[in-house]
């Protein structure tokens, strides 16, 4: 037996020691792990980005601790290409490697789209925040995709009562979905942007700014309108089984934000 093997037999495994407090831990693991990934992109096949990850499992009451290094080993074994199908292979591998009944993988990353300005066609990149949550409990799996979409909203009340102009603001819509078949990130973005007064752009020339300003003025929405508009569009997609839509408008004439939420529960008809 060499020195490395000898040392290995002498090192204590504290995590596998018995714990006598008889309290099960629901989630334990690593959080805030940054990892380069590739995500499937509707236009370009894949997009390289960096994700912040949490890898978590349950811990039975009789174990003192979990083996943190094994989470990173499982992740590294699956490479960089991340999509819905291999998310489930990762959580199943976590179950097996950590001897767990339940496993979770949460990853958040910026996702970039090229957008053309509405009048001149000038191209700029806009970033969106995306969150994938995959879970396995025994053989059952669950997947939730969340996309945060910045938009412009213009106040209908301000437009109705003002002789000149109307106040507008940047809003953020957080749309989380479960679906029976894959839905592109871009599709969720399009649903949200089509529900607001105007999309957000990174590059606007003067003709574009005129177009966006007038378009928003012609399409005023309260925060309540915004979440309802998104819900109507999602209800038209039979593959979307559940959603939770939150909107927060960063008010330009108040020192608070306006907020609304609508959720479709499994089996509901959206009414």
From TrEMBL:
One record GO biological process: tetrahydrofolate biosynthetic process
Organism classification: Bacteria, Pseudomonadati, Verrucomicrobiota, Methylacidimicrobium
Its biological purpose: Converts GTP to 7,8-dihydroneopterin triphosphate.
Matching Pfam families: GCHY-1
InterPro entries, sorted: GTP_cyclohydrolase_FolE2 (IPR022838), GTP_cyclohydrolase_FolE2/MptA (IPR003801)
Pathway entry: Cofactor biosynthesis; 7,8-dihydroneopterin triphosphate biosynthesis; 7,8-dihydroneopterin triphosphate from GTP: step 1/1
UniProt EC number: 3.5.4.16
Protein name: GTP cyclohydrolase FolE2
Site entry: May be catalytically important: 155
Domain of life of the native organism: Bacteria
Catalyses which reaction(s): GTP + H2O = 7,8-dihydroneopterin 3'-triphosphate + formate + H(+)
Annotated GO MF terms: GTP cyclohydrolase I activity
Keywords assigned by UniProt, alphabetized: Hydrolase
Gene: folE2
UniProt similarity note: Belongs to the GTP cyclohydrolase IV family.
């Amino acid at each position: 037996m060499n020195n490395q093997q000898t040392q290995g037999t002498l090192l204590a495994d504290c995590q596998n020691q018995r714990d006598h407090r008889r309290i099960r831990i629901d989630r334990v693991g690593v959080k805030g792990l940054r990892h380069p990934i590739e995500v499937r992109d509707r236009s370009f096949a894949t997009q390289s980005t960096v994700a912040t990850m949490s890898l978590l499992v349950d811990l039975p009451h009789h174990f003192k601790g979990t083996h943190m290094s094994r989470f990173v080993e499982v992740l590294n074994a699956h490479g960089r290409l991340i999509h819905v199908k291999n998310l489930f292979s990762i959580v199943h591998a976590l179950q097996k490697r950590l001897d767990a009944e339940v496993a979770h993988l949460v990853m958040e990353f910026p996702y970039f789209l090229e957008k053309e300005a509405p009048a001149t066609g000038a191209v700029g990149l806009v970033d969106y925040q995306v969150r994938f949550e995959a879970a396995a409990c025994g053989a059952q799996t669950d997947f939730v995709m969340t996309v945060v979409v910045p938009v412009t909203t213009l106040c209908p009340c301000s437009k109705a009562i003002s002789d000149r102009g109307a106040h507008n603001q940047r809003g953020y819509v957080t749309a989380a979905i479960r679906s029976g078949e894959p839905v592109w990130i871009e599709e969720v973005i399009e649903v949200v942007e089509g529900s607001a007064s105007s999309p957000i752009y990174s590059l606007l020339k003067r003709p574009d700014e005129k177009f966006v300003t007038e378009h928003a003025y012609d399409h005023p929405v309260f925060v309540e309108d915004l979440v309802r508009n998104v819900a109507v569009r999602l209800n038209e997609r039979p593959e979307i089984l559940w959603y939770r839509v939150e909107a927060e408008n960063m008010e330009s004439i108040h020192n608070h934000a306006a907020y609304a939420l609508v959720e479709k529960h499994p089996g509901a008809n959206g009414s």
